[in-house]
Write a structure and sequence with these properties.
By secondary structure, the chain is an alpha+beta fold. The protein has a single domain (3-196), classed as Glutaredoxin (3-Layer(aba) Sandwich). The chain is built from six helices and nine strands, in the order H-E-E-E-E-H-E-H-E-H-E-H-E-E-H. The strands form two sheets. A seven-stranded mixed beta sheet has the order 4-3-7-6-5-8-9, with helices on both faces. Strands 1-2 form a two-stranded antiparallel sheet. Helix 3 (81-96) crosses helix 6. The relative contact order is 0.19.
């Protein structure tokens, strides 16, 4: 999928949610959960995840709701895209300056939850000297897959073929898109800052 198509696809998914209205969110295990208030709720499954600090969080309520957020998928034993994309996002976070951990947050979701326990994610984050405002999460495989499907980036069951796209957006304004994660850090920081307050950019 080309960059332009990926952006249109993600935006199209989110626009469709506005017309359809929010629906109750159900985990892959079949357990009903209260639906988040956002009209885009069904694309942000409110499943339970665990952070690198061994803290329980809800994907929507705790990591997405009301935030400008960058979301990518990774796994710690990856030797190709993941190390390069993580290193690239470290530079993006640095370029975000005071916006990082104040009004812009990063979320990296493991696509190998069986291996990537909170302790493993903690060591991975420390290896890259991750700063506050960046959360690595793991969870039940079916719930991670539910998130990937909701965001329109579930490629296939081969984790080595996970997407190289970075999903970014402003939940409060309902502005979402995706872009290749390996663009230059300066380019990524620039496009992310445009959605921090769309009103300041004519949005």
């Amino acid at each position: 999928m080309g960059t332009r198509n990926a952006v249109l696809f993600v935006c199209g998914v989110m626009v469709a949610a506005v017309a359809g209205g929010a629906r109750p969110v159900t985990s892959a295990a079949g357990q009903a959960q209260s639906a988040p208030s956002s009209r885009l709720a069904r694309h942000f499954p409110n499943v339970l995840l665990r952070t690198q600090d061994n803290r329980d969080v809800r994907f929507y309520d705790d990591l997405v709701k009301g935030k400008v957020v960058l979301i990518n998928f990774m796994f710690t034993t990856c030797t190709s895209l993941c190390p390069r994309s993580t290193a690239n996002l470290v530079k993006v976070q640095e370029l975000l300056g005071d916006h990082a951990d104040r009004d812009v947050f990063l979320v990296s979701i493991s696509v190998d939850p069986d291996h990537d326990t909170p302790a493993v994610l903690k060591r991975y984050a420390e290896r890259y000297h991750i700063r506050p405002g960046w959360t690595f999460v793991t969870g039940k495989r079916e719930d991670v897959d539910l998130i990937r499907r909701g965001l329109g980036v579930r490629d296939n069951d081969d984790r080595s073929q996970h997407t190289g796209m970075l999903i970014y957006g402003n939940e409060a304004f309902g502005r979402w898109a995706s872009t290749p994660v390996m663009q230059s850090p300066a380019t990524l920081a620039s496009i992310v800052l445009r959605v921090v307050d769309p009103r300041a950019n004519g949005g």
